[in-house]
Amino acid sequence: MNTSSKDIILLAHAALGVTGSMGALWVFVEALSATSENARRIQTAALVAAVCMAAAWICGGYWYVHFYPADKALILKGPWPFAHNLFMETKEHLFFITGILAFLLPIATREKLYANPAARTLVLSVAGLIVVTGLAVEGAGAVIDHGVKVALQHDAPKGARP
Amino acid sequence: MNTAIRSGSPVLAPATSGFVLSAAITVVFNTALAWAKDANPALNDFMRRIGGHHWTTHGVVDLLVFAGLGILFTKTRAAEKIAPGRLTTVLIGAVAIAGLGLVLWYVFV
Q1: In Å, how far is A102's CA from the nearest CA of chain B?
Q2: How far apart are CA A84 and CA B80, in angstroms?
Q3: Which pTM value belongs to this model?
Q4: S-S: B94 plus which of A118, B17, B24, B57, CB 3.0-4.6 Å?
Q5: Cα distance from A157 to chain B (closest Cα, Å)?
Q6: Which chain A residues have a beta carbon less than 8 Å from that of B106?
Q7: How far is CA B94 from the centre of its chain?
Q8: What CA–CA distance (Å, rounded) separates A99 from A93?
């Protein structure tokens, strides 16, 4: 197996992003039936979401700055230039929104959700927004990855194509 | 006081309401900065020179705006004047507008 640090950083970025989104989903599900008993669990899940998103931000940022330019050049020469022009351009800025929401979640879950319906609605909304934007960012990542793949297939000699 | 029932209606802690308002402003600011960078190569280049890459600077600026406004709104209790339900609506609306604003910009511009 030939795995470079570039591959590990990219896969860690995606895995941490999904884990952060799942942490937010965990908060959402727990908050639906918030009681004093699961308050601690909700706060833990919110912290998991925030820490994972912060780590995904660092890994993704490092990969984007150091390794993405080569992939970008490939994508733009290939048959799917929109994988960069639309999906990467949107993803790299939409991720900031997901990150900010993830950092807000541990603050919002300090409220007594079981006694405060307004706080519970807020936490459900923030967690739901993290899940939706987080999965959108993950999906965009898959399109970008495929943009590289089709560019390489496009350039490959005909006999080498699957 | 983390959470309280004031005058019969639930309220949020100053830090919660402050950082929710801050998040709403930051996500809209994030989209506006993305538009500005894309439309103005000089700004893009300026941000690249500050942080080594425009994206790095953009992220740091977003975090500073979020933290700075959050602390400011918490200390001044400015966001407490907004009802919690309205604050949640403002945040959802801000995320929807900011997200859609990014997609539409890169589709059409």
Answers
A1: 10
A2: 42
A3: 0.92
A4: B24
A5: 32
A6: 85-86, 89-90
A7: 8
A8: 10
